[in-house]
What we know:
Helix content is about 30%, strand content about 25%. By secondary structure, the chain is an alpha/beta fold. The strands form 6 sheets. Strands 13-11-9-6-14-5-15-19-23-24 form a 10-stranded mixed sheet, sandwiched between helices. It has a 4-stranded antiparallel sheet with strand order 1-2-3-4, with no helix packed on it. Strands 18, 20, 21 and 22 form a 4-stranded mixed sheet that branches. A hairpin with a 2-residue loop joins β20 and β21 (about 395-400). The chain is globular and about 65 Å long. The N and C termini lie close together (about 10 Å).
Amino acid sequence: MTEFFIFCNLKVFWYPDLPNGRIKLLNFYPISSRNPDALIFLLLNMPVQIIVGAQWGDEGKGKIVDLLSAKADIVARYQGGANAGHTVVIGGEKFVLHLIPSGILQPNTMCVIGNGVVIDPAALLHEIEMLKKQGIQVEGRLLLSQRAHLVMPYHQLLDQSKEADEMQKKIGTTGRGIGPAYVDKAHRLGIRLIDLLDAETLREKIGLNLQEKNAILSAVYGKTPLEAEAILQDYRQFAAQIKPYVADTSHYLHQAMAENKTIICEGAQGSLLDVDFGTYPYVTSSTPTSGGACTGLGIGPKKIDTVMGVIKAYTTRVGMGPFPTEIHDELGEQLRALGYEYGATTGRPRRCGWFDAVVANYAAQINGIDSWALTKLDVLDTFAEIKLCVAYRYRGKELKSFPAEIHVLENCEPVYETFSGWQQSTANVRTFEELPAAAQKYLNAVQQITRVPIQIVSVGSDREQTILR
């Protein structure tokens, strides 16, 4: 990367190693390594930015969105549900968010939950109350799309029953009812937030749904049928509490764009869990990739200015499904312990493995990623040797593109390049040049192989433990 010139507080960079060269015009705000609130930059003339997970989720998107949202006007969540967990650490205090965008932790940022999200009212209200107890103002700063679908009690019971049924193929869901809620959305049986606010419509739709759902729960899973009145009573109470937050969020976002406000579109899960492009069927039920931001928020693709992919310095995944670079020996356990790799939503231990450039290249392809935010570099600080997967080998053939066939992924072998570890702490490093030479070499290899520049490097969980390039 070469810095061309500085003019009027602008910097222009040229990346000669990228296809056709690539020019980036960046606007840098004053940075102090001792002031975490100042560790911010925004892409100039790029007011709508998507932050997307580029692995199997748990990449650290919460921290990156929190960091960038300090100077953003709006953060908008576009898919998923309370099955996601974004963890942000500020001054040693931990915040775990499941539905509300990470931007809520910045005092001047508005937050939007878009129509592509499925909302569990009980989980949402619990999260609002949790934030209030931690001193975070939510009223006046959170909007919910009137078109967002609801997660209902029968969705959760169906989800949990299917996962527990020994006759069913296990996917490894969180049991939060997310998949069944999206099924009803596609099946045109879903209940939306706008329906929650209409007592008669709510009663009618719950009654119709329970006719089908109770038959399945009883006949297939041997469960006691659910009572419509009990659900209605709970959801009427939810309606009264949620009503002040409900809005036409697509219209709100379009007004904001007309006023040239900065919007960060926040995805949940990761690209390899995308229902179309992930390791199907071991995927989530929505579209975490960048295309999901348009359908999940009601904004056109021409409005998107840039896409930032979030990757870990290694790879993890939760639940079932193929994972080519998974480490099965004590090194995998070491990665899990050092990175505290346990699900923010379920507490389940994450499977750990080396960085997979085949996955990263695939994610860059399907998302149109312009830059990387690489997290948890510090977790690799103690390793004497670090591996990076550059290809797969299947039946003697080398594969550099990500295969769609699950049986290929389950039986391929990773082709590694090996790097020397730096074996010293990076936790207090705040510039790229201060990183150990071996760490710089590793990061440069990631850039070269993926042909995408790294703009952010995280060297710890706290907001201030960040390197901005």
